[in-house]
Amino acid sequence: MNFADLKADVKAALNKPEPLFLLGYMLFPLLALVFAALGLWMIISGQKIPGLIVLLVVTQAFTFGALWAIGRRRHIVANPPGDDAED
Predict the structure, then answer these.
(1) What keywords appear on the UniProt entry (predicted)?
(2) How far is residue 70's CA from residue 24's CA, in Å, rounded to a whole number?
């Protein structure tokens, strides 16, 4: 499997509501929670700068990723991409 096939498979998966449900409602929120706890633990244990970076950058990236996946899933469920071909 080459890189072009992998890229096409990922693009096809991001046009289906099931993988987006998994990302938006399960995986990204769980990772955001884990990294928020890690960032707080780092701040409490004395590593203030790396803890703030983890808390403010990594956690927010997973949070915005979850919001993106939920919005994309909502759009795909409302407007299925293959609706015209089935008629």
Answers:
(1) Membrane, Transmembrane, Transmembrane helix
(2) 5
